[in-house]
Design goal:
The complex is a heterodimer of chains A (312) and B (368).
Chain A (H helix, E strand, L loop, with lengths): L9 E12 L2 E12 L3 E5 L6 H8 L7 E6 L2 E2 L4 H7 E4 L11 H11 L8 H11 L12 H13 L5 E5 L7 H16 L3 E6 L10 E6 L2 E6 L1 H6 L4 E6 L3 H10 L5 E5 L2 E6 L6 H10 L6 E4 L4 H12 L1
Parallel strand pairs in A: 3-8, 3-9, 6-7, 7-8
Antiparallel strand pairs in A: 1-2, 1-4, 4-5, 9-10, 11-13, 11-14, 12-13
Helix pairs in contact in A: 3-5, 4-5
Chain B lengths: L1 H16 L1 H21 L7 E7 L4 H12 L3 E7 L2 H9 L5 E5 L3 H7 L3 E8 L3 H22 L9 E8 L10 H28 L1 H6 L5 H30 L8 H25 L3 H19 L11 H7 L3 H14 L8 H21 L6
């Protein structure tokens, strides 16, 4: 364990980690490294295995196979060391609802053998927003404020690695944006952040991301590269009858895939297979009216759908 | 150390802010003592009596007057036949029936022998015993007044019949029982719920991913309930000495020692339950069903252990309250010392040690 120090360039190392719950494979052969001072996002839908991965890395559960180290410390053998140096914010709001904001923060400061004063600088930007409510009980805070308090509590001991499991789930869009701003600031302080989210739009705010589905990583790269690797042509299609539109598009053999995205359907077409006009013609023949088809730039979500489609 | 104190302070915050629960916990011993001491008391007062005397004569009237005049009884109905008695019992209009044989007075005068049948509603067996005891006394007194020179008491033979519950079960000393029950309730049930709550709320996850030592978590969860138990012990002692006039016959220090030992056993039980369950409801069910019922039924608090079937008697050995109640009875009621409860003390020490060892071993440093 002599390689363990904060100056090592690798903060999280994960090698062929797998975990089964009875017969369900929650994680299958997970390999990745997170560099020091990086914001690394684990992006995937509910039930993909994000929380299981977080719990293994935070020493809460044991992996069935593989090894993982945090700051060079093994998650199984040196779990006590890891518990001293990481900050963890579970997916569910997990503070004491019947204690006030200040009491919660003070309690977690002493739990980690520190005081609010000692590390006030680190949490100042975040805590200052909830400080006016410091005598309010945590259970009575709004979702965004609860999240800020939870982050303050997870940061109060100046952790070297911060684990945030779905921190923005159930938080309003404004607070979500603010929250990501805070994470950028924390990275500047040299804190490594592993964050999971089901929101694909948050992926672009990470330095690197891993797309996860059914316990497997589909790809690990920077958000830009993942979007850049999207090789196909992407269109957004609309018509009067969206349900039938999806059905008809899926029946067209020249269309590679089509998924409902908000109020339109994203259609991927392999290069040179089909033109907008020929697709329109095909749809008019099928009785669609007010057809709109527009070429669009792929998002992370399109890439995720594409990748998960090829996996199946 | 600072961690521990801060944690304990937090626990007190949790408890004191939940005003309803804290009130219930502090008032429970008071309510139980008052209930057992007064509302559910065995004291016989103005019990309704139904009388059946087919031949109204001097002797029957005198006995009925005496019964009616006593503070224990109130002759409510005069029956005309045995159906009236059945009806009165069914409707709850009488708890005791006195049936005089025909020509009671004549028989008494001429043959020197007469019969009265006493019928008691034994749904409450302890009360029924008292009714019969008091009624027999009144009859015996009348008989002695009638012939003060005659010491032979064969004149009137009361014939006793226990209705609804022919096997009488003995009364109990409820103060030791209430002590045994309250301690289990507060220590075991509340402690297990408090620890499981952290699991259920997800805060246990954060506590685990911290340098906090598990033993601190346990100690701080236990501390407030220990304090509450000691307060309750004091309340029960004060109530029983000053309100119920049940004096502490033996040494108070011995009683306190045994009680602290019992609190320790109850706390370790709570700890064990918390390691076995992951929801507050489950913890409550286990402590409710698994602890309260044995404490009430198998500790000797209500039913004497000697009268139990062999199997239940065997099971009762594993109920800590059984040993504690026995020790309290010995010290508090019989006035004996610690030396006379060595067996109880030994069993409790053994139970506590085993329970603490198991639960500390089972206390997980990771999620289940």
């Amino acid at each position: 364990m002599n390689i363990s120090d904060n100056s090592s360039p690798i903060a999280i190392h994960c090698e062929s980690v797998s975990k089964n719950y009875k017969k369900i494979e929650a994680l299958k052969n997970i390999n990745f490294d997170v560099k020091r001072g990086e914001i690394f996002g684990i992006i995937g839908p509910d039930g993909a295995g994000k929380t299981t991965l977080f719990r293994i890395l935070t020493t809460l559960i044991l992996p069935d196979n593989g090894t993982a180290t945090i700051d060079g410390f093994d998650v199984v053998a040196s779990y006590k060391e890891i518990r001293k140096r990481v900050g963890y914010m579970p997916g569910r709001f997990s503070l004491y609802q019947d204690l006030t904001v200040e009491e919660n923060l003070e309690f977690f400061a002493t739990v980690f053998n520190t005081t609010i004063e000692e590390n006030y600088e680190l949490i100042k930007d975040i805590y200052i927003q909830i400080e006016p409510f410091k005598n309010r009980r945590a259970g009575k805070l709004s979702g965004g404020m609860k999240q800020k308090l939870a982050l303050s509590c997870a940061l109060i001991h100046k952790p070297s690695v911060l684990f945030l499991d779905e921190p923005t789930t159930g938080v309003d869009p404004v607070s979500r944006k603010e929250f990501w701003g805070m994470l950028q600031k924390l990275r500047e302080q040299g804190i490594t952040i592993l964050v999971s989210t089901p929101y694909m739009d948050e992926a672009s705010l990470c330095d690197r991301i891993a797309l996860i589905q059914n316990g497997q990583f589909l790809r690990i790269d920077t958000p830009e590269n993942i979007v850049g690797q999207f090789a196909d042509i992407l269109w957004a299609a609309k018509s009067d009858n969206m349900h039938k539109l999806l059905e008809d598009l899926r029946n067209d053999e020249q269309v590679k895939s089509s998924f409902a995205f908000g109020d339109s359907i994203h259609v991927t077409v392999e290069n040179g297979q089909l033109t907008v006009d020929s697709l329109k013609k095909y749809l008019i023949e099928r009785g669609h009216k007010n057809i709109e088809i527009q070429p669009i730039e792929p998002t992370i979500e399109d890439c995720f759908m594409e990748l998960s489609n090829t996996q199946i | 150390m600072k961690q521990l104190f801060s944690f304990i302070r937090k626990e007190f915050h949790h408890i004191l802010r939940d005003k309803t629960t804290v009130m219930i916990l502090l008032l429970m011993p008071v309510i139980q003592i008052v209930l057992f001491g007064f509302a559910l008391s065995q004291e016989v007062k103005d019990t309704k009596v139904i009388v059946l005397a087919n031949t109204s004569d001097d002797a029957t009237r005198r006995i009925i007057d005496r019964v009616d005049a006593s503070e224990y009884f109130d002759v409510a109905v005069v029956a005309h036949n045995s159906n009236d008695i059945d009806a009165a019992f069914r409707d709850g209009k009488a708890k005791l029936a006195m049936v005089f044989e025909d020509h009671f007075s004549e028989n008494l005068k001429h043959t020197g022998k007469a019969h009265i049948q006493l019928i008691a509603d034994a749904t409450d067996p302890n009360a029924a015993t008292s009714f019969l005891f008091y009624a027999s006394n009144i009859i015996t007194n009348y008989q002695q007044d009638l012939s003060p020179t005659q010491t032979n008491s064969g004149l009137i033979t009361p014939e006793v019949k226990m209705l609804y519950n022919p096997q009488m079960k003995s009364a109990f000393n409820f103060v030791p029982g209430v002590l045994g029950m309250i301690m289990i309730l507060i220590c075991a049930m509340m402690t297990s719920i408090a620890i499981v709550r952290e699991k259920e709320m997800g805060t246990m996850e954060i506590l685990l991913v911290s340098p906090m030592r598990p033993i601190y978590t346990i100690l701080s969860k236990i501390a407030p309930y220990f304090v509450l138990s000691v307060i309750n012990f004091a309340t029960i002692m004060l109530l029983s000495v000053f309100v119920l006039k049940v004096p502490i016959a033996g040494s108070f220090i011995s009683l306190l020692t045994v009680s602290l030992l019992y609190i320790f056993v109850a706390l370790s039980l709570g700890l064990l339950i918390s390691t076995l369950t992951s929801s507050q409801l489950a913890a409550m069910m286990i402590s409710g069903m698994g602890l309260m019922i044995p404490v009430m039924l198998l500790s000797g608090m209500i039913f004497p252990i000697e009268n139990m079937p062999v199997f239940l008697r065997f099971i009762s050995n594993f109920v800590p309250a059984r040993w504690y109640i026995d020790a309290v009875k010995t010290i508090m009621i019989k006035g004996l010392g610690l030396g006379d409860v060595l067996k109880d003390v030994g069993v409790l020490i053994l139970m506590g040690t085993v329970l603490v060892t198991i639960s500390l071993k089972k206390f997980k440093v990771r999620l289940g």
